[in-house]
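Support case: zinc ion complex. Customer-provided input:
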Amino acid sequence: MVDNEYILAIDIGGTSIKIGVVKQDNVIENTSTRNVFKGKSNQFIEGIKDFCNIYINKYNITKIGIGCPGDIINGKVETAANLGWKNYNILEDFQNNFPDLEIKICNDGLAAFYGEKKYGKLKDIDNAIFITLGRGVGGAILMNNQIVIGSHLKGGKIGHMIINRNGRRCNCGRRGCLETYASVLGLINTVKEYNMHTIDENSKISDEKLSGYQIVQYAKGNNKMVLSAIRKWNYDIAEGILNLCNLFDPQRIVIAGGITESDLIDLELIKTFINNRGYEQCEVYLTSFKGKTGLIGAAANFDFKLN
Ligand SMILES: [Zn+2]
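Agent response - structure generated as follows:
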């Protein structure tokens, strides 16, 4: 019975790679390593193999579920701009290294969605938008209980809708994509911009190597400049969500990603923004699984059904 199995889950992110053992919606054990494989997909499997083997042996694992950014088609990463990977046959790589194991791979946003739909806030919801905020912005669109993914499996790329045509340069080659503002990297850049222009000397910070973690600390310390930048970031997220409401009129929106472990996301601001613009009934929630959604989702890819 699949539901009682331990599954090895791998969540490949732009900054870190999470590897864990998942049983249904529980992460039993997990570890994380820096993603040092940008532009080096040929070194990826060698780099993470040992982490995998520890869990595989300890839990007698027979299945590996992987979530990876980018366009994943037939087990191949066609392009993952954030990772600098192109035409990387990740499934084949895993199968060669773990020949006795069953392996599944899909886009990381989609994987996280599977977890939320199977066990979390999207259970029994037929019309929804699921957004993951990480180094980039991913997610999934569910309409009439079907995933909207298009004719070539490349649709539903929430992160690459433009919210500012002359805005920040995006990895996809265009400017002003939602991802460049609403992602954690987008937040870091917004804080840097605010820092550069602030006239409040008490709020100025050293922005070299600024991280999401540091922003959380500045916010806790009530740094006014950082707090205004966070507010602007929340409006950017809200702007993207309102675009999605205009297109899809969902019943529910769920926001996921490691950043949901902090309290930087202002759900009230986002809700008010969309409620005041015609979407009074649309609900907005944070993920049920905080930073673990990606792992739970990568494992939920096995035996996932839209009922
Ligand atoms: Zn883009």
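The chain has nine helices and 13 strands.

Case will auto-close in a few days if no follow-up is received.
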